[in-house]
Amino acid sequence: MKSKIINGLLQILGIMIVGAIIGYAVGKIVGDSLSRVDKPNIILLLITGVIAFILHVIIHEAGHLVFGLLSGYKFISFRVFDFKIIKDENRKFKIRYERLAGTGGQCLMRAPEYIEGKFKYKLYLLGGVTFNLVFSIVFWLILPSYYTLLFALIGFALAFLNLIPMGFNDGMTFYHASKDETTRFVLYLQLEYVYYQSIGKNLLIEKPEIVEKINSLEITNTNYLTDALEFIKLEGLEYFFEFDSLYNETRKLYIERDDLLPVYKIELMALLVKLISLVNPEDELLEELMKDKTLLARFKQKNPQTKNILATYEWGVKLDDEKAMILIEEARKLKNKAPNLYVQNLEMKYCDYLENKILN
User: Fold this and answer.
1) DSSP for 80-136?
2) Mind telling me which residue stretches traverse the membrane in this protein (predicted)?
3) Least confidently predicted of 82-91, 237-246, 275-284
4) CA gap 99, 337 in Å, rounded
5) I need a surface site. Which of 154, 238, 252, 321 has the fewest CB within 10 A?
6) Is 236 within 8 Å of 265 (Cβ atoms)?
7) Residue 104: exposure state from Cβ atoms within 10 A (0-12, 13-18, ≥19)
8) Pick from 186, 201, 270: which is nearest to 239 by CA?
9) What is the DSSP string of 69-82?
């Protein structure tokens, strides 16, 4: 805990130092140009700031897309805030809704076939930052004004916030991937896993040999990329509805890994609520979980995963079959708000499973 606080303070200090340097440099560079333009309208400046931020999120993800394509990657999905464009199994584009805490956007692509020592990840990971910087500079050079200066400053800020390794941003992913070959292979696996989910399939089922490769990995540098393997394994159990084993493994991971990223931890807690309600409603851990404010906020999301968790809780713990059935129907109506086709199919299958348990 102490080390996390120290690391957090160091990150904040680093951002402040970089911000001060950028501010000083910008002042020196643009001072003369600004002296020759009209003073800005404050309201327009505020509106410009909001629009510039949204544009830079789009520009950032477009950078990942362009540099990914140049590296041989293939498009999977493009998300800005909660709106996501995906290419389905029929290669048609669809719009889905997905909320991922801690991110403004995300561009996911399928990596080219993995070759040890030659995995192409650098351009893909740094493409977003590069686009933010290039567009910021070009806009300022073409039309210098207070408004384009604000656009440029927001672009530089977003670029450096993604470049300085912290949380699970591009810089941190690049840092971990650059350290060892195992982490690069894990990054490849994650992208491949997401691709298979986008077409409604599970990588571990389609390519069983991957399971053996995962189990044989010698992970020396544990990080959020390697942690994702734990969730991939859990989803393998969930695919076959092996809920007893899934409950035991999920509970074990929750108890043993207090250092998981918050975004991982909250999803693990949500899964545990469903599994405890389904397998062991007397588990004392459930009361602790249901008091967590972050988890309760997570349960306000409107998607089939959340509705099925709540339906299971109402049936298994509250013994309210009627409310559980209502939530199951809500899950079915929200199927298009699942993050991908695989999750959509899995949740609809679970709706049938839980409904059958309630009626029989």
Assistant:
1) ETTEEEEE-TTS-EEEEE---TT-SEEEEEEPPPP-TT----HHHHHHHHHHHHHHH
2) 12-30, 42-59, 123-143, 149-168
3) 82-91
4) 10
5) 252
6) no
7) middle
8) 201
9) HHTT-EEEEEEETT
Contacts of 238 (CB under 8 A, 6+ apart): 246, 346
The Cα–Cα gap between 292 and 318 comes to 18
Q: What is the pLDDT of residues 329-347, one digit of tens each?
A: 999 999 988 888 899 999 9
CA distance 145 to 139: 10
CA dist 129 and 132 (Å) reads: 5
What is the average pLDDT value for the chain, to the nearest integer?
88
Contact (Cβ atoms closer than 8 angstroms) between residue 254 and residue 234: no
How far out from the chain centre does Cα 219 lie? 22
Using an 8 Å Cβ cutoff, are 184 and 77 in contact? no
- Give 28-56 as a DSSP string: HHHHHHHTTSPPPPHHHHHHHHHHHHHHH
pTM for this structure?
0.83
Question: Cβ distance 103 to 224 under 8 Å?
Answer: no
User: Which DSSP string do the residues of 237-249 spell out, in sequence order?
Assistant: HHHTT-HHHHHHH
Question: What is the predicted pLDDT for the residue at 321?
Answer: 97
**HSE of 15, CA atoms in CB hemisphere, 13 A:** 17
pLDDT for 218 equals: 86
Is residue 127 exposed (0-12), middle (13-18) or buried (19+ Cβ within 10 Å)? buried
Contacts of 199 (CB under 8 A, 6+ apart): 88, 89, 341, 342
For the purposes of burial, counting CB atoms within 10 Å of the CB of 162, is it exposed (0-12), middle (13-18) or buried (19 or more)?
A: buried
The CB density around residue 337, as the number of other CB atoms within 10 Å, is 22
Give the C-alpha distances (Å, rounded to integers) separating 148 from 144, 152, 262. 6, 6, 36
Reduced to 3 states (helix: H, G, I; strand: E, B; else coil), residue 1 is coil
Instruction: Compute the average pLDDT of residues 166-188.
Output: 92
Between 150 and 3, residue with greater pLDDT? 150
Which of 246 and 94 is assigned the larger pLDDT? 246
